[in-house]
Amino acid sequence: MKDGFVKTTEQSSLYNHLEKMEISELLKHINTEDQKVAIAVEKELDKIEQLTLKITQQLQTGGRLFYIGAGTSGRLGILDASECPPTFGVSPDLVIGIIAGGDHAIKNAVENAEDHELQGWEDLKKHHITNKDIVVGIAASGTTPYVIKALEKCNAESIPTGCITCNQNSPLASVAQFPVEVVVGPEFVTGSSRMKAGTAQKMVLNMLTTSTMVKLGRVKGNKMVDMQLSNNKLVLRGIKMIQEATQVEENVAKEALSKFKNVRLAIQYIKDNDDKKN
Fold first, then answer.
1. Would the CA dihedral through 94, 95, 98, 102 be positive or negative?
2. pLDDT computed for residue 115 by the predictor
């Protein structure tokens, strides 16, 4: 471990005798702790910006974004990756989440999966990873061998690396080229990093992909014009978006959306027709 490294994620809770508290007390104290998360994230905005810029550059030149983690951290990476195709209409192969222990670990704890030092790189190799891609390791503790060794190997192969962790001066941050260290302090339940640390990681992940997708042109104005129309609610939202952008009647917007199955294309089609008429 690095000199001066302290696992704040493992320090004792600021609260004791939780079992004696009323539900109202428990909720109040959890909420108090949660309010610290956004402040901690704000302190890392410069680092988050640097990582986002690199992710954007890699994706603009044909690369992919990989998240790699274990346990809650791995699941959060998979969650963020899985939401990019329906939200932004990108390929499922553009943002990829990898978790120690494989797909089984998404719903189940896999014993010692995070301690396998060589498996992280092996899991990345299955995707034929190259130096066009970028890999972001996610680990609240910053000490997960599965993630650290994967990033070390990426560095050796000239593949850009970043990380999201919730301890300062961690082994993971020391190997990541673009480290983000969101220090949220002790958890309400001692060591339960699914709480504040997990919330912090989710907030940063939201920032990374949302900002990147905006810069890749996947948002117009403030609308998800490339979203997948996978249910009636989204179809209705798409029709409304088309109407707002073109000022056409609902039936016209509905017909265009039905034809193209894409809000952006439907809007462009209507605007092109208007230009021809004028």
1. negative
2. 87
pTM above 0.70, yes or no: yes
CB contact at 8 A, 95 and 68: no
pLDDT tens figures, 30-76: 999 999 999 999 999 999 999 999 999 999 999 999 999 999 999 99
- 224 lies in a domain? no
Q: Are residues 148 and 242 in the same domain?
A: no
Active site residues: 83, 114
Residue 256 CA to residue 101 CA, distance in Å, equals: 45
One domain, residues 211 and 236: no
pLDDT digits (tens, 9 = 90+) for 227-243: 999 999 999 999 999 99
Residue whose pair of structure tokens reads 């603009």 in the numeric block: 60
Q: Do residues 162 and 92 share a domain?
A: yes
Among candidate residues 2, 1, 3, 10, the one with its CA nearest the CA of residue 183:
10
Mark residue 247 as left, alpha or beta (left: phi above 0; alpha: psi -120 to 50; beta: remaining).
left
Residue 26 pLDDT level (bands cut at 50, 70, 90)? very high
Of 166, 188, 215, which residue sits at a domain end? Answer: 215
Residues 37, 132 within the same domain: yes
Same structural domain for residues 257 and 185? no
Statement to judge: residues 236 and 207 lie in one domain: no
- Helices 23-42 and 196-215 meet at what angle, rounded to 10? 40
The tokens describing 23, both together, are: 């539900």
Q: Are residues 128 and 249 in the same domain?
A: no
